[in-house]
Protein 1
Amino acid sequence: MKTIWFHMQGYRDLPDDFRDRYESIWVTPPNDELCHSPEVAKYLHWNLDELEMADDLGFDGLGLNEHHQNGYGFPISPNMIATVLARRKSNAALVILGNTLPLYNPPIRVAEEFALLDCLSGGRLVAGFPVGSPMDTTGCYGIPPTQVRPRYYEAHDLITQAWTRPGPFAFNGRFNKLRYVNPWPKPLQKPHPPIWLAGGGSVETWKFATDHDYTYSYLSFMGHKYAKVLMDGYWDSVEKAGMDDNPYRAGFAQLVVVADTDADAERIYLKHLRNFYSKSLYVAPHFAAVPGFMTKRSFEFQLSHRGASAFSFDFKPHEATWKQLVEDSRMVIGGSPDTVAAQIEEAVRNIRVGHLMVILQIQSMDPELTAYSSGLFAEKVLPKIKGIWDKEGYTDRWWPQGATRNQPQVARPAVKAANGEAKVQA
Amino acid sequence: MNTQTAQSVELPGGFAANPVIIKGEGAPVVYLHGPFGQEWDGFLDDLAAHHRVYAPAHAGAEETEDLEQLDGLSDLVIYYDDLFDRLGLEQVDLIGHSFGGMVAAEYAATFRDRVRKLVLIDAMGLWHDDAPVADHLLVSPEKLVKLLFNDPSKPEVKAKLAMPSEREAMNAAIVNRFGALASTSHFIHPIPERGLKRRLRRIKAETLVLWGAQDALVPPSYAAEFVALIPKARAEMIQKAGHVPQVEQRKVVSEHLERFLAR
């Protein structure tokens, strides 16, 4: 299994009365009241320090994403952050999950920047293509909800053509009219970097994944028990498409906290978990559920199946107990390294996941605590979980060709790094 | 709430049929609804006493996939032109409310001879930074009620806001509202201004601008600007009414309409 150290890049110091004072963590939390540039300057260095630490600790990949105008995570340009990481002499994957395609006009910008990153990193890039949240697309960037998916599909076609067709060629789309598509450069990986999809469980995205043989990552903060119904839906659609059950077709994001003992973990991390769930997931429904973001038919289906979910939470996040968060709901995986390793194995086998994105920096945690949790994870958990799926004989066909860390020696296409150095096996 | 029977009107171009509510006898009047869906409020009954009233659903409200071939207001006015053809209407009196007012004005500026008289009720379509049109899409239900109505405690308003209690009917109402908000925001999100200001001068129809004096969604100051830009226009401000004066002050609105549309 691949373990990706994923940084959400949130705002670490939100006021305690945040929920009473503001309607939403996303779209409208007023910047002058809440987002202080000197703090952000500090966070940006911390974020990069933590990502570089994770690289040094031996995680298979480093994960970044894109969001806008919010305190939960405002990694507005993952490509800029990834450029710093791409410069390091490393053999870890750079998993950008991803660029929110509908927000780029024209989207050849994504084709260009991902190609640049792939070249700079020596072919270590994962090119994530999320549709984007209603908050980012319709809220922050003003795209009519009915145009988000059409723009997404067209951007996907444009970018993949830009990477695979000889330039220059003409692209006559509904939203993009380009006479000369001819990006310099094309990616180092051929035919192009692995494309990963990410979403919150929409049927359209599953079909898009199977249509193109892409991997699908479910980005939730609710844990594997909650994700089970959705992931089963995804695996059903994979089966119906006649494809194999390779767990590397799936990714999952998971909050993880590690300490020397289970009791220590509760003592140290509970306040950070409460803070995260009460503030970061406080998104106003009128920003999160926008009419037109899905088709009328999908909406009708969802409405008529309302209440059918097998799993629900009945606690308030800001007063949640460790037992509720970790033991009962399994929203969070936490405890001693042994506990964490066992719970991770249970989770990834339950929902069949080959790409695990671990979130070890949880909003209000400072770099020291992040280093403690990540260090224990790398030293004592990683060795126990990295062999998951090996004995079943699955290979990861969606891993970047230049990310050679922890990879089998054979059958990897050789990619010469941009700096001329051969990639070294970790 | 639409409790009227609609007539399914087939359209060319691969669009879904439009369920047009038709009632009354007399000269034709077409009513284009606002962003929240097809409706038949009491003032249309008043109007149907002396007119034949046609109340279509907004394009794409029934089938959101229709929006794939509607890329802007110019496509939309052609859609309505096709619809009027199918209804056999040569010339109409056109009433538009809110988003529907914006569409009605665009239509009248494009197909100049097909509109005899034009009524704009709290119409969208213009924008000034010092009087921003509020967001009706990304807003909480509680705040939306305040944006729409001067006095939400009035029985007429309560009746307008009431949802069916039975699950299936409630789901149908929610889906209708979803389709209406999705298909109208397709043309105007996030700011309902697409250059109408430049085209209003072309409107030939005599125009009545009705406006709720307490409209918190589209500020009343826009009434004067519509009047200034449309060659033959006058405004009537409706007191004690918000964005939906035809519901909050049905009698006053109906009297204005009756006088203005009389032949």
Protein 2
Amino acid sequence: MSARFLDPQVLARIDGLELLARTVVEGFISGLHQSPYHGLSTDFAEHRPYLPGDDIRRVDWRLWGRTDRFYVKEFEADTNANVVVLLDVSRSMAYGRTGVTKLDYGRYLAATLLYLSRRQRDRVGLVTFDRDVREVVPPSARHLERALHALERVEPGGPGGGGGTLGPPLARVMATIRRRSIMILISDLYEPPDALAESIGVLRGAGSDVIVFHVLDPSERAFPFDEPAPFEDLETGERMPVVPGDQAERYRALIEEHLATVARRMSETGLDYELTMTDRPLDYALLEYLTRRRALTRVR
Amino acid sequence: MGFLAPLFLAALAALAIPVLVHLTHKERKEPQVFPSLMFLQRIPFRTRRHQRIRHWLLFALRAAAVALLAAAFARPFLPRVGAEAGGGRSVIVLLDRSASMGAAGRWARAQREVRTAIDTLGPGTAVTLIAFDDRAEALARNSTDRTAIAGALARVSPGSAAGRFGPALRLAASLLEERGGAGEVVVVSDFPQRAWTGDEAGILPAGTHLTTRDVGDSALASVAVTSVVLEHTTDARTTVTARIVATGGRERTVPATLEVAGRDVQTVRVSTGPGEPALARFEALRDPEEPRRARVRVPADDLPADDAHHFVFGPAPRLPVLLVTRPGARAADALYLRQALAVARDPALPVTTRAANAVRAADLDAAAVIVLHDVPFPGGETGRHLLERIREGAGLFIALGAQGSLPGEIGTSIAPSLRPTDRAELGAAAAAAEPTHPVFSGWDGARGDPFAGSRTFRYRPLERARTALARFDDGTAALAAVRLGSGRALVWAADFANRWSDLPLQPGFVPLMHGAARWLAGYAPAPTAFAVGEVAELARPAAGALVLERPDGRREALDPEGPARVRLDASGFWLVRGAAARAQALLLAANVPTEESDPARLDPSRLGLAVAGGTVAAPPPRELAGPPAERERRQRLWWFMLATVLVLLAAETVIAQRTRGIIG
């Protein structure tokens, strides 16, 4: 597996999310020893040549007997799950000190997950939101391009899009997506852990599976500032003078405590939670997703 | 390390700037965007943590740059570096101790300058300290003993003499030449214009470095009594007039007091201003019987040395004249001569008339000048005594007339004709042959010839006169001079009775007689006062030594084998006594030279350029003059300091750019 195309800073140079997603996913998959695709439907669709990594159980032996070539069976995905990516596009997501903002990272992650899911025959959908739902691409087997296009156009925090909590937009999402789905939430989760658990827990209302990618910039944990300066809240525009120093240590302690609490509360609520830093290659997130996805399949 | 301009060190207070910068960092104007402030606490800027100095390296660079900048402007120098601390170097310090250095504050400044000049020298540098006025005296020669030099400096004080650069520079030049040529000379003076005569140019060896320390000031306000004139009247009284000169300040009225024998006699008020001398006239005083100490003084001011003028107030000088006439001669025969002599002043010429046959030895002894008018030279004992008096110094004036004759010693050199020459019709004109002779001193050239207008109708030609002071129009000598021993004699070819010649009726007659009497008696007016530095000639007593009593009361005996003269080197009254108990004392008065009251000052740079043969640059300004300034110029430490400042600032810029969060 090559991490060359999985480094977020390298991905930032690729123009076009579809190309980006294909590059990541194909590169990622080619490095795996086992094919990640799992056809869950029994409705035959077509044959295709066997590819290394395909499960040999799916080889059509009869056809091999007639043609002396290996083919595997492809099935219609009408029984595949809905995969809906919920991308937080609030202003706080526009933050980034490593060359890639959290929103960029979230877009890359969303695109690759959607692409990967579509390759898995899942129906893919996209919801962007800040304090309110900004755009909804309903889950469909044909909505990958639309979802990627929506991701291309996404801007952080539109008018009146700053601040707020996750609760209202997520509740509105649940009102539009009633079918059981795999919900992938990508956000920086700047809310009290209890409020987060309550807001995100709503997503489980229709029996959906929820995977939370908590995206943070490394500086949000390390707090490497040492210059006294006014700090401006990206969400609210509020400013306050901050003198780093002893305060930095205190901040680090608070943020770590917050992360630990969030992880615990997510676990308690039955949510899959993954903390992802924007300097971390995307394959970690993809691998995490596939692991969760496989577990969900087995459960099913 | 020393500093030429230590006031610039006050700029070290600027060190507070980097301290404050590092303690009170300003808030960055550009806000730092951050996703959420939920974990950040609002805190005030001035916290304990905030007031700690951060970035010590940058702080040290900035503080060092500021400190070096202040030190560079203070013109630093190292007083003891390299060869300067070792032996071999020698500096000559010339300290002016003339009377003008006694002005308020000058002497203290001069001593301070000398101490500063010496203190900044290395311990191995030999110092020669020379004090000078119109003479130069080495107080310490080539000495490295700073204590001894300081002691010598403490013992010297301003004197009463005039200042002259010449003697001091000549002494310095001789010392330099002894050590092989050029050296360093420091002149500490108030640089009066009068001290520079122009002869000092090029005195010092070529290459000598001369620096000047000017301790004078142009704001001096002083009133000086520069001279006193005594006018003797015919009634044995004397009028005293003093000349008062003001320098500096505005016109002012001051009291001038005449003091005689220690008592204030009169006080008058005079108004004077700069450039406007005034005369203080005192009412006539009766002449004392013997010389008295007297002075005219004004109140003390910035320059006390010239506030009083000392003089000797004595009886009017007299030259007794013995007039010898023919027995039975008419009184009118000598009338013109007696009247002419009687009006003489300074000296007075009191006349005693005696018939030729009534002359006594006492008459001859009492007379300074003996006039033989138309009488034969006395014979016998009187004649011999008269000749002896002449040889001892008395004067003899012979008007030949019809009966006059000369003693053999004089007659042989003059050889007057026994047969008169008659010029009855028009008379013979006479004229001075040597108009500059002292006999004619009372008759200046502007008034023509002393004999102008006179006609001599009969005379006895002086056929062999070798020294003819006047001649008739026929070329024969009319007035002849001859010396006899210590005395002098004049021979007039006619008479003074207005019979042979009408000279007594002419305007030139009176001054001619006065001049003749003074010359014959060898008269020289005794000065009422000397200037300090002048030499007084004394009359050596027949036996024993002269004892000198100085103005400060100290007594000293003059060398009996040496010249009988004394150099008056202090102002005040000097007394010269013979060793004999009853010997008459000679009173002398000495005063500060009048030029010491002249405020005109010399540009010190002119002295520096001229005396060293123009080989040295003009000395730096006063505050930078002297060895420290020269040392600072050579070392150029300020240059290295400024270069270091630039390097420090460059390093600070680089480091500050690499260190985020530093307020630049």
Protein 3
Amino acid sequence: MHLVLFFIFGGLCVAGALNLLLQRHPINSALSLIVVMTSLAVLYLLLGAEFLAAAQVIVYSGAIMVLFTFVIMLLNAGREEKTHGSKAAYIVGFPGAAAILGVLAYIFLKQSGNLGSAKLGEYLVTTSDLSRVLFRDLLLPFEVTSVLILIAILGAVALARKGHE
Amino acid sequence: MVPISYYLVLSAILFSIGVGAFLIKRNIITVFMSIELMLNAVNLTFVAFAHQWRHVSGQIFVFFVMVVAAAEAAVGLAIIIAIFRTRNTLNVDQVDLMKL
């Protein structure tokens, strides 16, 4: 059951990511990124992270992607024009990315025995477990993030404002 | 039962696709989206290791990454809007003032 769910949603993730790579219109890329993020939420649920699954749907596929689609529509972004792009990206970038993937996959699959395996429902982090750590041990970092978000709001407003007199 | 290594390989695949998209996409918004894809791939690694070590810290880390990603998306999209206002283009090849 777990394996079947993993392959369905992992396959959806990879398909969405490849679609993001291949589509030429930014709105299609944004929609396929939403598919990736929502399937990742299911994978988090399979790994017993229930709060993060909810946060992934609300924050990532909700807030951030709405912001992206909003900006794409606001700027009326059309199809990407075909350019030759950077030569270095093709010569060094692709073999580099493929090499990273190859090395990582080789190491992970070789160490598969040491890494163990995940069973469905065996380990579950409830929201109260998470909040106990967050509000007791990590209260200061949590409060500092509110300052970060405040600064981000101010920065976004200052940058996107019309006219810089 | 799914080996943890499958999750790690999946996140490596997503990360590599993100790197590839970052390198070949010419639209600045799509480049930004591939950064989000890479962040998501790393988050999956954190959750997988948190499951393996039975430790909450990995999930806390993902929570903070999400917060930072939200702030980064807001500021980054504001920068994109500012670029579009001044240069009237979204193509990264035409925004090359700092290129040698």
Protein 4
Amino acid sequence: MNFPAELKYTKDHEWVRVEGNEAYIGITDFAQKELGDIVYVDITTVGDEVEKEAVFGTVEAVKTVSDLFMPVTGKVLEMNKDIDSAPESVNTDPYGKGWMIKIAISNPAELSELLSADAYKALVGA
Amino acid sequence: MKTTALTQKHISLGAKMVEFAGYNMPVSYSGLNDEHMTVRNSVGVFDVSHMGEFILKGEHALDLIQKVTSNDASVLTDGKAQYSCLPNDKGGIVDDLIVYRIDAKTYMLVVNASNIDKDWNWIKQHDTWGVEMHNISEKTSLLAIQGPKAMDTLQKLTDIKLADIPYYAFAKGKFNGVDNVVISNTGYTGAGGFEIYFENEYAEKMWDNIFEAGKEFGIKPIGLGARDTLRLEMGFCLYGNDIDDTTSPIEAGLGWITKFTKDFTNRAAIEAQKQNGVSRKLVGFEMIDRGIPRHDYQLADAQGNIIGKVSSGTQSPSLNKAIGMGYVKTEFAKADTEIFVVIRDKAIKAKVTKIPFLKK
């Protein structure tokens, strides 16, 4: 499994790519494998300020459904519209085409609480 | 956790394993959609050795079967099988099962893994004849080879002419060099194919040779995940989801395996339901708006009144839409009735659909 070193991770299996005051968020390679074939991603919070660890959406796979949790507090600026028509990109390219939301970070201090790639790898036993 | 004779094989093939009915079982290998379509389009193999098998023998074996099951097993002839259920005495179902008539005095009952002990005790409890019973579950392996290329695959391994075995019939004979293999034209997928029963010691050789025989068709191992989506497209009930100790065969749409030509457990109450009607029914439905129904989600009417709940649901890989089954108040059971599935506090539109979802 692949866990890019430049990303930050959560114990709930989201990744974060920080770009200045903004960040892209998706789910990890481990998470997509656990979920299996993803059918759609339901993001209900675009435009909202969402607290760290609150639910920003859900991901529906054939067999199961899972909540998506905010890694850090922020305003949801946009969702990846391409995954509406191609949800499988979350399976095939979780860190690239499969990104889910872009946020404006409210409290940059929270970033330090996220996991490094190595720490996350250890967490999932990969 | 219990294992089947093939558990190590699944692990070595890289299957994702889960606990199911106390067994360490493969839930997926190459991916659920891929496995599902492999069975629909070609051929796939399921290890379902966790299922339970009982042998009932003797003069009164049929009497006991007639007493505990809802279908009429007296119509079976040698080499025929029948889908049936064990009604309890409170209006529900102990289990659903397949009854095989090996000969007039020998029957095999195939039951769900999660219910082996419950069924065994239930049947024993109703045995006033002293019928000889053997629980051969632990030493019996069961492979389901399903899909349009299943027959071509398996025919390479036996001289028994598989095309001569009708649906819900079986042959007992030499298969892959092993004697007394039960080769049954049954399955849980609607894709056609066979289920084969044999002793554990032959399991690895069976598995390997079946895969060799099916190589030209792109045969693949299939997990329990795809087993569930395949059966759901056909509207087949899953015990524990769609039927259980509290659902009656009539509510569940299993009137066709409930025969009042004979006496059986709780017959009077079930017959009364058949005559007077039931207040809820198991229906199929498909989603109109986006959402995937899941077990235990509530079902509502347009005003938001709760009218029932989902018993099974999934995204259908073949139909590429979300489908489900659930119990609804009888007035909502007609095809095309608009109903709503409550998904994360939102009512998502669906409509009642005739099953099977997947038409031939």
